[in-house]
Write a sequence for this structure.
């Protein structure tokens, strides 16, 4: 048993001499911690967006399956993810577009014209 302890202690001494001591510790700033959390939130936002039902249907209409789309999201850089997440935030919540607004105005104008003509 003494031989085993002697062997282990010699191996530890040799490894401590040969292996460099390099331990670095530092304090990260709040801005770095918040940026890291924001990056994770943006990646989750884009991933959730890609896994929505209506988005999957649109991908399939374009010939892309959802697994491939998710793989492409996972392969994106953080800068691309942040840009897309910003665009998701600025998109309109409903399906309103310029066409829908214009059509609504035309229909209201026709109804009012028809009502006043009687």
């Amino acid at each position: 048993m003494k031989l085993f302890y002697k062997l282990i202690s010699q191996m530890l001494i040799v490894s401590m001499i040969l292996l460099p001591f390099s331990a670095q510790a530092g304090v990260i700033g709040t801005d770095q911690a918040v940026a890291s959390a924001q990056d994770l939130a943006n990646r989750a936002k884009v991933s959730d967006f890609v896994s929505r039902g209506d988005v999957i249907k649109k991908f399939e209409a374009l010939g892309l399956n959802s697994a491939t789309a998710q793989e492409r999201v996972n392969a994106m850089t953080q800068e691309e993810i942040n840009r897309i997440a910003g665009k998701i935030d600025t998109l309109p919540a409903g399906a309103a577009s310029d066409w829908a607004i214009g059509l609504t105005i035309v229909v209201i104008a026709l109804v009012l014209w028809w009502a006043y003509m009687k």
Notes: The helical segments are 2-18, 30-50, 53-61, 66-75, 78-90, 98-117.
